[in-house]
Amino acid sequence: MKIGSAVTILAIMIVGLVTHVAVASDVHDGTDFKPASDDYDWIQLTSDEWLKGELISLYENELTFESDNLGRLTLDWEDIRYFRSHNSHRISIRGLSSMSGQLQIDPDSVSLDINGDIQKFPRYRLVAVTPAAYRELDNWRGNAVLGTNFRRGNTETTEFNLLASLERRTPRSRVNLDYLGNFNEADGEQVANNHRLNGNWDLFSGSRFFWRPVLGQLYRDPFQNISRQGTFETGVGYELIDNSKTEWQVTGGLGVNIIRYQSTEPDEPSNETSPALSLGTNFETELTPWMDFMFLMHMTFLDEDSGNYQHHMLTTLSTDLVGNFDVDVSLIWDRIGKPQQRADGSTPEKDDYRLMIGLGYDF
Fold it and tell me: Which domain holds residue 265?
């Protein structure tokens, strides 16, 4: 009798322990939790944690989410399991136009409630999400890197380098403006003074291909015997990689190049116009949570009188410092295949190399 009672008590204890573990497991993983219908957006991470707050945007496989307690968070889209909105959001589905409604996302699908009409799409086709009422400023981002060097004494040196970019992105288009400038003076004499401005406008087709209706470049470098140069093209591009950590795209364009030389020999024209064929690639990746790497190469093929061939290469290693500030180290290589002779008969070097170290700010 006593043995039977002991067995019964032991069985009850085992059942109670198993039940306790099961309940604790359910509470921990959050699988039974359902967000309340309130004035918050809700997301569930793949770690089963839930957050409530407000979705700012989803773009380029990054979700920006604002929580009252945690502040503004930037999360990888691959780490988000579930999302539910409390009000209307605008979404872009690959291959379709933008649409607005109350949004719900699970691991496999995207559901949009448009005044009671439920539209459902595979999750992998989702390109972007923004609040239905959004600010134009939310479409813009940019960064600027400033490098300086001053030396006084036996040698007086003044050097400025500025690298800046501005980008406007929407689910269907992208506009880029990039500027690179260098000024260097030693003992009162200029040894570098060049400026490069690039711009492009891209339209997305819903696939990895995109159309680049406008691609332009303005360039000036008197030490390369280029008073001013303009290249204007139209072209296409293809996204080789586009995920939360890496972007890699290749582009091609066809247009015209107009160049005015700083000086030429008496029997040589000071202006040249040439057809232009360009090829380019842009690669960016996140090496670590605090370090990014970027590589850009743009090649332009011209006729013999306009230099035959030109390229601009920029590679940057960017390290987070504090907040939106970072330290950037950039290597730049510019080349002209056939530089134009100056009026005094001298010929500029084909290659220019620069190493830039500067303080950057992202906004």
Answer: 138-362
For the chain, which ranges sit under pLDDT 70? 1-32, 37, 95, 97, 133-135, 138, 171, 206, 244
User: How would you write the chain as a 3-class SS string?
Assistant: CHHHHHHHHHHHHHHHHHHHHHHHHHHHHCCCCCCCCCCCEEEEECCCCEEEEEEEEEECCEEEEEECCCEEEEEEHHHEEEEEEEEEEEEEECCCCCEEEEEEECCCEEEEEECCEEEEEEHHHEEEEEECCCCHHHHEEEEEEEEEEEECCCCCEEEEEEEEEEEEECCCEEEEEEEEEEEEEECCEEEEEEEEEEEEEEEECCCCEEEEEEEEEEEEEHHHCEEEEEEEEEEEEEEEEECCCEEEEEEEEEEEEEEEECCCCCCCCCEEEEEEEEEEEEEEEEEECCEEEEEEEEEEECCHHHCCEEEEEEEEEEEEEECCEEEEEEEEEEEECCCCCCCCCCCCCCEEEEEEEEEEEEC
**Could you give the number of structural domains in the chain?**
3
For residue 89, the domain's CATH number is: 2.30.30
Predicted pLDDT of residue 178:
97
Query: pTM of the entire structure?
Result: 0.73
